[in-house]
Amino acid sequence: MRTAKYIGMTIITIILGVTGLIVGSAGTAFATGTTPTTTNIVVSPEGAINGTAGETIYLGIQVGGENGVPTGAWDYTITYSDQASGQTETCATGNSSLNSSGEWDGNIYVNSATCALPAVLTVTVNYEGNSTYAPSSAQQSVSVPSATSTTISGPSSATAGQSVTFTSAVTSYGTGTPTGTVSFVDTNTGSTLCTVSETTGTASCTTTGLTQVGSNIINATYSGSSDYSGSQANTTTTITNPTATTTTVSASPNPVYAGQTETITVQVTSSSGTPTGSFNYTITEPDGTVASQGTESLNSAGEWSISSTISSSAPTGYWTASATYTGNSTYASSSGSATLDIESPPKTATTTTMAVSANPIQAGNTETFTATVSSASGTPSGDVAFSDGSGDLSGCSSVALNSSGAA
């Protein structure tokens, strides 16, 4: 059974069913016996009481005497040395009674501010004696840390995978500034988001690790140190899925020929609003070689475009233009691509006419054949082959056109 009495600013917590501890006056004076006694004590820090500004100290008492077991009342005094004045100050007192075995043990509460924790506290226990046994006392010093308070702040809502920052503040209920490490944990998944060393009482954790949709409880735990007890706090962030997007890549004209101007357009759309931000693009040649890649930003309409002239040295075939929208806190990422057909320029149509020097012609006479090649755009150049239907005419298998397109 555990009981506690609250007297003024001091709380005494008694363990092992010992009750009746009273803080304050030791009661009415009485004559004590003369049988010698010896008081032995064990003192050790037990840590902070969650949600309070104090620490607990374990106190074990055993009083021995000749010819029997001493019983009766005992009292304690806890003191510390004030660093500013150099004086010894009392910060806690109390009393209780030994059990039938001449013993008592339990936890004593000390306030971090009242005892200027962290500090070395001196615990003095006085056995008050009874009609048979004489009083005795014992004293022991113990280093006691200060209780701390941890707070955590962060966004109330975010989208899955969004970069968010949580900040914790660790303060001492006593004196000084706590130092050590603060761990930030997503209690929904059990994953540690950050472990941060702090020397000024604050620590921040920036993470993209919140991906579970719904209410996420984020815990900040200060690990404590030799001078400061650990503490923790929680905050809740609601995670939602970002709005889906569609990335479309288009190329115009398509197919395209060397010397023509080609325009590639990237557009990102969603069912709600206009996505903004950046995207990564890659343009690959027919054999898979990367011709160009980079990062660009969408305009206010969620678009981006570029126009360029196709070089005559560009490999012909099917090129690929792909784009990946990186997304942001509101919109999800998406990808799209387009196939661009680069072809050799088409040839201009030509007309070939034939003229002869004489028609009809007698066998053995010389005949001159003249071919004229024309087109709707410019004068064709090249060679003309003359044949009689069964093969090229001798000496006329490849005759170059002149500047007028005749041969």
Which descriptors apply to this entry?
29 strands; 53% strand
Distance between the termini: 123 Å
The residue ranges in which pLDDT falls below 50 over 5 or more consecutive positions are: 1-30
Structural class: mainly beta
Largest β sheet strand count, sense and barrel closure:
5 strands, antiparallel
The secondary-structure element order is EEEEEEEEEEEEEEEEEEEEEEEEEEEEE
Care to count the β-strands? Answer: 29
Question: What portion of residues belong to β-strands?
Answer: over 45%
Query: For the CA atoms, what is the radius of gyration?
Result: 48 Å
Folded structure, characterized:
The chain is an all-beta fold and 407 residues long. Helix content is 0%, strand content 53%. The strands form eight sheets. Strands 1-2-7-4-3 form a five-stranded antiparallel β-sheet, with no helix packed on it.
List the helices and strands and how they pair.
Layout: E1 3-7, E2 10-14, E3 37-48, E4 54-65, E5 73-81, E6 88-97, E7 103-111, E8 119-127, E9 136-144, E10 148-153, E11 157-159, E12 164-172, E13 180-186, E14 191-198, E15 202-207, E16 214-222, E17 231-240, E18 245-252, E19 256-257, E20 261-270, E21 278-284, E22 290-297, E23 303-309, E24 317-325, E25 334-343, E26 350-356, E27 369-375, E28 383-384, E29 399-400
Parallel strand pairs: 11-17, 19-25
Antiparallel strand pairs: 1-2, 2-7, 3-4, 4-7, 5-6, 5-8, 8-9, 10-12, 12-15, 13-14, 13-16, 16-17, 18-20, 20-23, 21-22, 21-24, 24-25, 26-27, 28-29
